[in-house]
Design the sequence.
């Protein structure tokens, strides 16, 4: 059975049916989670030279290419922060994780440039986050397509249902932490391979143990996406690390995205310094820090 897809509207919610699909497949897609008008705001935010991307860096894929990343610990009050705090992103995720309080673990902008963007190795997010001291896999993420994502430009691939395997051992592959490929190979015999082909504003909600990856980008189109990640407040990490300990999340109504006019003030976001991240090996010559 293919992964469930829904069309977003103001009446969409995490019903028992939606929850059952998430529990069974570890993910589902919501088409049009962000509207065209909201995406215009997002593009203005990420394409602004004095905004988010000046804090980016590259992580090698071990195959001669790399992907660009920009990661921040707290949502902040800019347009991208409104996305991470919105009820239709943070609120839905909170419901999927049992209706218990969640906090913003981090948001990242992943950037695969035309003809050069690298692949992202097979992994589970919890493969990283377990090493950060999160004892339980009470965590989930929302991928939101900033650009159209398809097989040609290296969209996300995933194995629906693979979250039921539990955590798989992870090791370094290039600059990335990747899952044990022998175990991934066995999982591929059981779970069907699917592609998250998304239009701008579409979103994939997924469990932290879902196995996923993405191919390199050989197309003439860039492929950028947001990944907003959340942790249950009850799962406060036992280690202090480069992502935040429990910090109350102040959610906002969905219309806050359109109402926000802040595109460049990054106050309070706390961009991640890749030299402090023990789960990746970044190309530090590309890190611009807080210039």
Sequence:
């Amino acid at each position: 059975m293919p992964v469930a897809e829904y069309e977003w509207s103001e009446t969409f919610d995490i019903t028992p049916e939606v929850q059952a699909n998430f529990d069974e497949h570890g993910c589902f897609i919501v088409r049009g989670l962000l509207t065209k008008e909201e995406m215009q705001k997002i593009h203005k935010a990420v394409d602004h030279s004095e905004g988010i991307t000046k804090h980016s860096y590259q992580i090698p894929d071990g195959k001669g290419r790399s992907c660009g990343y920009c990661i921040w610990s707290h949502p902040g009050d800019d347009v991208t922060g409104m996305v991470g705090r919105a009820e239709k992103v943070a609120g839905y995720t909170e419901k999927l994780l049992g209706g218990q309080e969640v906090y913003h673990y981090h948001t990242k902008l992943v950037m695969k440039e035309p003809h050069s963007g690298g692949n992202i190795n097979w992994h589970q997010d919890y493969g990283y986050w377990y090493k950060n001291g999160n004892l339980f896999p009470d965590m989930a993420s929302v991928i939101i397509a900033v650009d159209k994502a398809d097989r040609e430009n290296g969209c996300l691939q995933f194995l629906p249902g693979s979250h039921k395997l539990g955590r798989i051992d992870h090791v370094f592959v290039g600059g990335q932490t990747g899952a044990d490929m022998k175990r991934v190979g066995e999982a591929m015999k059981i779970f069907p391979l699917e592609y998250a082909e998304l239009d701008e504003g579409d979103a994939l909600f997924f469990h932290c143990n879902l196995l996923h990856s993405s191919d390199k980008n050989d197309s003439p189109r860039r492929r950028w996406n947001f990944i907003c990640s959340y942790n249950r407040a009850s799962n406060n990490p036992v280690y202090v690390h480069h992502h935040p300990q429990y910090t109350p999340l102040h959610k906002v109504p969905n219309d806050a995205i359109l109402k926000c006019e802040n595109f460049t003030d990054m106050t309070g976001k706390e961009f991640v310094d890749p030299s402090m991240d023990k789960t990746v090996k970044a190309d530090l010559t590309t890190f611009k820090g807080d210039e």
User: Anything to note?
Assistant: Residues 280-285 have pLDDT under 50 and may be disordered. The longest helix spans residues 36-46. The helical segments are 16-25, 36-46, 79-85, 87-96, 125-129, 181-188, 256-259. The CA atoms of residues 20 and 26 lie 9 Å apart.
